[in-house]
Design brief:
six-stranded antiparallel beta sheet, hydrolase, nucleotide-binding, alpha/beta, Hypothetical Protein Yjia, Chain: A,domain 2, chaperone, Rossmann fold, binds guanosine-5'-triphosphate, seven-stranded parallel beta sheet
Length: 352
């Protein structure tokens, strides 16, 4: 077990579809802070879709210096605009293979419902993308006065894959733990297994939400982005996500794999991998991605010579996670496994 950033096996599985990550949260919770923080990740090639550049105050120099393309959707909340304000068109443009983006971040306006945004991303007809999760930012100070006003906990938490309880620096030290526990409890009433973390200024470990193709900026290519990052002396002011991984030197048993994907080990927020399964005639490679409870399976053009499975989360249970990954690596898979293949193909169909 190690920090994600220091572990070779946690490096991205390249190719496949670009994850689209929705950033949601009530007005002022810290979405733009989160977007700018993620944009500062060295080596990341990110596409951004925002409702309106003018009002959202994205760090324009970061956008200009670091990403190839940005798309603004004006005229209101992306969920409420006809045709989703052209979200699909924006995703289509940003998912062009030549852009080689690591992820596309969609920052919805403060009034957008995460459920609506999750649906727009999940049901998008754009072929080059996959859902990358919904990150819901909560203002720890204003929570009970803004989003959580009724006896029932807010429905929006049901759509989140990751909840960031932000602005914890503004909580009085004597009340801090109690307030955080209260918010956690309200979120879990609605969504028992969602991953919840705390943050200041929305500084979370970017490795928790996307992979990057490189750990550092290419030399001389992105001077603006690097300059801006250098202004943030405390940019490592967050806990690091942790990863566990296993190499797959032979085909996997699809049943064992799907068991893992459907019931991830405690603390695993993402599971990703490239795997090979034995079909009736040939071996087939697949890219698998799990974010929260979303399982995405897409065929690879060719089976990888060596596969891998990586689990990432803030509070991974080291022993259990490694054991679960190794169980998949070691499950016998000499013969085609009809029932398991059917389960796998079902996810492939749902992901198409
Ligand atoms: N003290 C403190 N201030 C924060 C924190 N996170 C964000 N802020 C400030 O809170 C304000 C709102 O943050 P934004 O990131 O713009 O929030 P937002 O969700 O994008 O806001 P809208 O786009 O208006 O919905 C800004 O002034 C931030 O600097 C935090 O953790 N602590």
């Amino acid at each position: 077990m190690a920090d994600v950033t220091s572990r070779p096996a946690a490096r991205p599985s390249r190719g496949g579809r670009v994850p689209v990550i929705g950033l949601t949260g009530f007005l002022g919770a810290g979405k733009t802070s989160l977007l700018n923080h993620l944009l500062r990740r060295p080596g990341a090639r990110l596409g951004v879709v925002v409702n309106d550049f003018g009002t959202l105050n994205v760090d324009a120099a970061l956008v200009a210096g670091q990403i190839d393309d940005a798309e603004a959707i004006s005229g209101g909340c992306v969920c409420c605009l006809p045709d989703a304000g052209g979200l699909d068109d924006a995703l289509q443009r940003l998912s062009r293979p030549r852009l080689r983006l690591d992820a596309i971040l969609v920052e919805a306006s403060g009034i957008a419902e995460p459920i609506g945004l999750a649906r727009l991303i999940g049901l998008s007809p754009v072929k080059g993308i996959r859902p990358g999760g919904i990150v819901e930012v909560i203002d720890a100070v204003e929570h009970d006065r803004t989003v959580d006003l009724w006896p029932e906990p807010p429905a929006r938490y049901a759509a989140a894959t990751l909840v960031v309880i932000n602005k914890v620096d503004l909580l009085p030290p004597a009340e801090r733990d109690q307030v955080i526990a209260h918010i956690q409890d309200r979120v879990r009433q609605r969504h028992p297994h969602v991953q919840i973390i705390t943050a200041r200024h929305s500084r979370i470990d970017p490795a928790l939400v996307f992979d990057t193709a490189a750990d550092e900026d290419p030399v001389d290519e992105l001077p603006l982005a690097r300059l801006i990052r250098d202004q943030y002396e405390d940019r490592h002011d967050h806990q690091h996500a942790r990863a566990a991984s296993t190499e797959l030197v032979r085909p996997v048993c699809p049943d064992a794999l799907i068991d893992l994907l459907e019931d991830p080990p405690p603390g695993a927020y993402r599971i990703k991998g490239r795997i090979v399964v034995r079909g009736s005639r040939t071996a087939q490679g697949y890219a698998v991605n799990v974010v929260g409870t979303q399982i995405h399976v897409t065929p690879l053009p060719a089976p990888p010579p060596v596969g891998e499975l990586v689990a990432i989360g803030m509070n991974l249970d080291q022993e259990t996670t490694q054991h679960r990954l190794d169980t998949v690596a070691n499950a016998p898979a000499e013969r085609p496994h009809t029932a398991g293949l059917r389960r796998l193909r079902r996810y492939r169909t749902l992901s198409a």
